[in-house]
């Protein structure tokens, strides 16, 4: 009977130190690191469209919004993820690389990331006490899913037509603006 070779466990501190000089971004989940793949132009267009709307709404509320390169710390899962978009309103979020108290996280779904975004990441994001909304945006159809914290539940609004309402930033985004080229 062969022994499976285990990857060495990496501490969060070692991960963060290595990530600052890494040529490729990595996500971290309980001692393991996973390389991130690049995005296609459709994905980048959707992220860019949403960032324009989120950044203005965030600033109006004294918050900040970031795209792609800022990690979110999920303490309860011992994880660091790179969401496509994140917004924070916490003055305690003073680390230049990591958001610990997000109010909003957005993931744009692709064929290679959809199952992880839907299951692992969404489940783990829900463990962040400050988080009010998780948004999943389809690249292949006009569909935006908004999961809102309601006590301990996270009911979803499926938006296929009309505006996308984001209560965390008091923002309404026309669905057309999400998908315009």
Brief summary:
With 181 residues, the chain is an alpha+beta fold. The protein is built from 4 helices and 13 strands. The model has no long low-confidence stretch (mean pLDDT 94).
Structure description:
The chain is built from 4 helices and 13 strands. Strands 3-6-8-9-10-11 form a 6-stranded mixed sheet, with helices on both faces. It has a 5-stranded mixed sheet with strand order 2-1-5-4-7, with helices on both faces. It has a two-stranded antiparallel ribbon with strand order 12-13. With 181 residues, the chain is an alpha+beta fold. The N and C termini lie far apart (55 Å). It has helices at 12-19, 41-60, 114-125, 175-179; strands at 26-29, 32-35, 64-67, 71-74, 79-81, 85-88, 98-99, 102-109, 133-138, 144-148, 156-159, 163-166, 171-174.
């Amino acid at each position: 009977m062969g022994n499976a070779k285990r990857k060495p466990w990496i501490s969060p501190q070692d991960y963060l130190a290595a990530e600052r000089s890494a040529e490729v971004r990595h996500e971290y989940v309980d001692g393991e690191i996973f390389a991130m793949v690049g995005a296609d132009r459709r994905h980048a267009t959707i992220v860019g469209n949403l960032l324009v709307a989120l950044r203005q709404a965030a600033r109006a509320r004294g918050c900040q919004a970031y795209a792609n390169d800022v990690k979110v710390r999920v303490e309860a899962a011992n994880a660091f993820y790179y969401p496509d978009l994140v917004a924070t309103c916490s003055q305690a979020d003073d680390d230049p690389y990591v958001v610990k108290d997000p109010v909003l996280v957005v993931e744009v779904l692709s064929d290679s990331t959809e199952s992880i975004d839907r299951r692992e990441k969404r489940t783990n994001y829900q463990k962040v006490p400050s988080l009010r909304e998780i948004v999943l945006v389809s690249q292949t159809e006009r569909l935006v899913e908004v999961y809102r914290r309601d006590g301990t539940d996270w009911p979803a609004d499926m938006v296929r037509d009309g505006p996308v309402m984001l209560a965390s930033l008091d923002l309404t985004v026309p669905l057309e603006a999400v998908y315009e080229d």
